[in-house]
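For reproducibility, we list the full input for the S-adenosylmethionine complex.
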Amino acid sequence: MTEDTRSAHWERVYATKDEQEMSWFEEVPRESLDLISKAHPNRETRIIDVGGGASRLVDMLVERGQAHVTVLDLSAAAVEVAKSRLPTASNVEWIVADVTKWQPDRCYHLWHDRAAFHFLTSKEDQSAYAAVMHRALAENGLAVIGTFSPSGPDKCSGLPVARHDGESLQRIFGPRFRLISSETYRHTTPWSSTQDFQFSTFIKIDRSRITRLSNAGPCAGTSGSHMVSRRGPYRFGVRGNCPYRTAAAARGSAAARVPIIARNSGEE
Ligand SMILES: C[S@@+](CC[C@H](N)C(=O)[O-])C[C@H]1O[C@@H](n2cnc3c(N)ncnc32)[C@H](O)[C@@H]1O
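The corresponding predicted structure, in tokenized form, follows.
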């Protein structure tokens, strides 16, 4: 599917359908919020919702006090819907782009995607997505990827999808990411049918742990301090180098003055 066709499809969907007519609609994106909570983000954690559409995840992250939230979507109409609910949220960045072609200009600590990656059915698009995700994430950053699972539907919004489990995603994302958790989730659509999803969390691994790395990407740098927590499956403690931030610092931008992330209290 070309970028134009993709984009036209999603513009039409968001321009013509009410949210209750979209199978993926959730009043509360509970699974996403739970998985993001498990990462123990602090206020300064930079979170991006890729293919965020009109999802209410952004509303809830803002409500939780996240200071840096980005929503990226192919559809300007979708972004407008979400934006119109948050007219005063100055801490949200809205980006209209095809993720496979997007050139990130800063690093994120947490990448979230619910039901966007599974529309990428070609190897080329999937690899392009993995490369962008690698460029956009700080060292030790986390990626939470929700897709239809192998027992889920083979179409979404009338388009074919690629169904995944943690292992199939790991094969696509390659050695630059490590799968740290995977779980299944049954979504109930607004008309009460069910769809099987999987949500997998990956960590962008420390460059020093990769013996042969051909494409480190600009967000690669010195290792951060991601640790396995005794209190949970993982704890967010990313302090990885971010060259974008360095470039922003050189320009003296406000973004650059924000500490990339503060350590969680009680972190060893
Ligand atoms: C099924 S909807 C899910 C929306 C949202 N994540 C949610 O859970 O409500 C898929 C979204 O992915 C977006 N999308 C599809 N392909 C994309 C691409 N290549 N780049 C960016 N966004 C894309 C669509 O515009 C749509 O908003």
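The CA atoms of residues 28 and 200 lie 19 Å apart. The pocket of S-adenosylmethionine is lined by residues 6, 10, 24, 51-53, 55, 73-75, 78, 98-100, 114-116, 119, 156-157 (CB under 6 Å). Both points were considered when choosing residues for closer inspection.
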